[in-house]
Amino acid sequence: MNVDNFRLQLGGKEYVPIIIGGMGVNISTTELALSAERLGGIGHISDALVTYVCDRIFKTSYVSRKRKQYAAHSDNPDKSAELFDLEEIAEAQKKYIEHTISQKSGKGAIFLNCMEKLTMNSSVETLKVRLNSAMDAGIDGLTLAAGLNLRTLDLIQDHPRFRDVQIGIIISSVRALAIFLKRAVRLNRLPDYIIVEGPLAGGHLGFGPGDWQSFDLQTIFTEVVEFLKKEGLNIPVIPAGGIFTGTDAVDYLKQGAGAVQVATRFTIAKEAGLPSSVKQEYLNAEEKDIVVNMASTTGYPMRMLVNSPTLRYAIKPNCEGLGYLLENGGKCTYIDAYYQSIAERKEGEPLVVKEKTCLCTGMANYDCWTCGHTTYRLKETTNRLEGGVWQLPDAKDIFLDYQFSSDHSIRLPELESVS
Ligand SMILES: Cc1cc2nc3c(=O)[nH]c(=O)nc-3n(C[C@H](O)[C@H](O)[C@H](O)COP(=O)(O)O)c2cc1C
After folding, report:
1. Looking at residues 61-84, what average pLDDT do you find?
2. pLDDT of residue 149
3. Considering only CA atoms, which residue is closest to atom 20 of ligand 1?
4. Is the pLDDT of residue 163 over 80?
5. Are 323 and 123 in contact (CB under 8 A)?
6. Lowest mean pLDDT: which of 10-14, 100-104, 148-152, 374-378?
7. 322-356 burial, b if ≥16 CB within 10 A, otherwise e?
């Protein structure tokens, strides 16, 4: 038995039950998402730092314009005045999503991963623009992630596509699900799918900093399935976090999962946005190199490689151009940590900012090497070429391996000759 024996039914359509999870900033690129869509599955793009992503792809200048507008504030720890231009956010969002959607050619779908914790110094207004513009641009689905806001559905309820776009949530506990559902029931708009993310996932974790080890995906998945059964709700449940082989996926599909969401295996795909040298870092990583820390300014634990350059940052906060993680009122824990380090630094000593990192800059520069727990196993999935460099597989190879492999086997990509 393999994953191909199953199908995900969603919104009247049928998909290969493999979803590539959203990976900001531009790790799950347009090309990566499209590779899943073309094979009949679902691919996510992410709207994290969308203005910056647009500047890179379309040579627009959203970031430099915003940076110029607020240049006078750059030495000021008070960032409360540094707001995004909502029209620009809408424009960038549409540009990026239309660019992706217009290239669809398969039977699958493209969803947007929308991390609500990207508060952008105006959490409600910016979230409203992000979600509504995404629907304007024709996105097939919205996956609401990190920092789920109970009022999110209210922000989009007037959009003409509110009832036909697929809406999903990522949760890590039955408790979070129950709270979200209460509001959804009131609006008579239940989520169309529920992604249950366990503690082995990449990116931010929906657990406490000290307790993620005491949870496991299988238990939370079972609790969610039982809860929905008790409530009489028939919503596809999609486990995520640590599903490394097609056989791991089949284990969940046999238990009634609608699909699986996977990401780590795809970080090293040719189509993924990480620079090739960083993909080699992922491939070379050992289990001891993968850590969960509190360096992110979101307040959530985050998993990353211990040698991520961002952990050594002592740079001036970069909020003028970026500022995606500013809490309402212009606060960010990196700003506090940075100015505290300056105040405490003894003369002649280098500046060291402890505990927090400028995550906007780290993610923009691919200096924050966030990854799933199974990253140390990536070396099992590809060939080592002459000279010790790892071959980077096509996303298609990885997708098809998930879809057709059995007995925990992993089919290596065809060996590339080194030119
Ligand atoms: C490099 C990387 C970046 C990620 N970034 C995000 C993100 O921006 N938003 C999000 O909701 N999840 C993010 N995730 C989580 C994935 O979407 C996915 O749910 C999870 O990693 C699946 O587990 P796996 O990586 O073990 O397959 C990220 C995962 C990885 C590996």
Report:
1. 97
2. 80
3. 201
4. yes
5. no
6. 148-152
7. bbbbbbeebbbbbbebbeebeeeeeeeeeeebeeb
CA of 349 to the centre of ligand 1 (A): 37
Beta bridge partners of 204: 302
Whole-angstrom Cα distance, residue 337 to residue 357? 9
Using most ligand atoms within 8 A of CB, pick from 19, 20, 23 the residue to mutate for ligand 1.
Answer: 23
Q: 370: Cβ below 6 Å to ligand 1?
A: yes
Amino acid, single-letter form, for residue 102: S
Ligand 1 pocket check for 375: Cβ under 6 Å: no
Is 287 part of a structural domain of the chain?
no
Closest-CA residue, ligand 1 atom 4, reads: 23
Query: What tokens does 143 get?
Result: 């996956």
Q: How confident is the model at residue 188 (pLDDT cuts 50, 70, 90)?
A: very high
Q: Can you tell me which atom of ligand 1 is nearest the CA of 145?
A: 11
Residue 418 is predicted with a pLDDT of 61
Domain limits at 135?
Answer: 3-64+85-275+378-404
Per-residue pLDDT tens over the stretch 338-350: 999 999 999 999 9
pLDDT of residue 377: 98
CATH of the domain at 34: 3.20.20.70
**Which residue matches tokens 């949760």?**
171
Quote the ligand 1 centre to 172 CA distance (angstroms). 13
The CA–CA distances, whole Å, from 156 to 147, 159, 183, 189, 386 equal 17, 5, 13, 11, 53
Q: Is residue 92 part of a domain?
A: yes
Mean per-residue pLDDT, 269-295: 98
Report pLDDT for 214.
Answer: 95
In this predicted structure, what is the pLDDT of residue 401?
A: 98
* Alpha-carbon span 359 to 51, nearest angstrom: 16
Residue 25 has a pLDDT of 97
Residue 222: other Cβ atoms inside 10 A: 16
Instruction: Check if 199 has its Cβ closer than 6 Å to any atom of ligand 1.
Output: no
Task: Please state the domain count of the chain.
Answer: 1
Q: Is residue 29 part of a domain?
A: yes
For range 403-408, the mean pLDDT: 97
Distance between CA atoms of residues 397 and 410, nearest Å: 10
pTM for the predicted model, two decimal places: 0.98
Residue 55 lies in a domain: yes
Q: Is the peptide bond before 25 cis (omega within 30 degrees of 0)?
A: yes
